[in-house]
Amino acid sequence: MSITLQGIEKSFGNLQALTPIDLTIKGGDFVCLLGPSGCGKTTLLRIIGGLEESDQGRISFSERKIFDHDERINLQPQKRNIGMVFQDFALWPHMTVFENVAYGLRARGRKAEVEDKVMEALNNVQLGSFHARYPHQLSGGQQQRVAIARAIANDPEIILMDEPLSALDATLRDEMRILLQSLVKKLGMTAIYVTHDQHEAMTMADQIVVMNQGRIMQTGSPEEVYREPENETVARFVGKGAILEGMHARHNGIDYLRLNHRVRIPVPQEKATEFSDGTMLTVVIRPEQITLSQTPSECMMAGTVNTASFLGERYEISFTVEGTDELMFAYAKERLKPGETVYFHLDTDRVHIIEKDGSDYVETA
């Protein structure tokens, strides 16, 4: 089921939590609302779920209008055919796992289906044999699975999740992430998932909606928001990398980002040739776009190693460009020592240029 938002906005007193927002989500997509705390992502989720009312605008689920401020349409949450999962598991402690999952079915008058639907939902989250246990007899990950089973037992077409994994440890988060991804696809639901964790968003989403200060900063696939951020806010929030600001210069037909009077970072010619000397540029450089060496060679620049972090199959190296205070990141096959001199080469065809006002530089015909 697709979701269409038009002109959605929300204020709490003098605080505007959401500026007018337009967003279209394709049916069956797993969409992550990503952003820092207080950016409006949970408010937007609650408006979609009917737990908050938008001050303006319209919301449609496919062709079905579920909210329209002007027409005074506002369907109650239980009439929107959605499932909800929250950070707080919100399980009844005096009820068994079975009864917790059955609660919503009974409330909606689907008593004849309770046995089959509850056991189907529990089996989908691999807890079929735990139906007679109580929440205090379960681990945190198992309790969250019960909450998910309760959300899907009513056969919702849309599932809304507000940071459901943040209370779990790292190993459980990885297990639950895989379970949620596979379950959403298996059941054909449209999922909206709120998180401030860029790793969760990058690994789970078909589409990421990056938010900040009540606004949508960029919408796109994980690859798009990582490789082609539309502004510095997205570039800094999504993925590791250096964001260098400097002056455009051209020497012997080569375009550079000039950091100071003697340090110049080459940038793709086709992305920069329309700019004259002195134009201020911002360049986003990701770690995989840098090749490191411990021996100097032509066209390489020097830097000083700050830290080396072991990531399993490789090391993440942070280093300062010689002659500047600019910190950059790259990957290496072996550990480098802090204070060691390192030489680096940029894959200039892959670096990304964004304007100071936030929009991409676009070549003119």
UniProtKB/TrEMBL annotation:
SUPFAM superfamilies in UniProt: MOP-like (SSF50331), P-loop containing nucleoside triphosphate hydrolases (SSF52540)
Domain ABC transporter: 3-238
GO molecular function: ABC-type quaternary ammonium compound transporting activity; ATP binding; ATP hydrolysis activity
UniProt KW keywords: ATP-binding, Nucleotide-binding, Transport
Record's keyword annotation contains Nucleotide-binding: yes
Catalytic activity field: a quaternary ammonium(out) + ATP + H2O = a quaternary ammonium(in) + ADP + phosphate + H(+)
Protein name as annotated: Carnitine transport ATP-binding protein OpuCA
Assembly information from the UniProt record: The complex is composed of two ATP-binding proteins (OpuCA), two transmembrane proteins (OpuCB and OpuCD) and a solute-binding protein (OpuCC).
Keyword Cytoplasm: no
GO cellular component, one term: ATP-binding cassette (ABC) transporter complex, substrate-binding subunit-containing
Top-rank taxon: Bacteria
EC number: 7.6.2.9
PROSITE patterns, per database record: ABC_TRANSPORTER_1 (PS00211), ABC_TRANSPORTER_2 (PS50893)
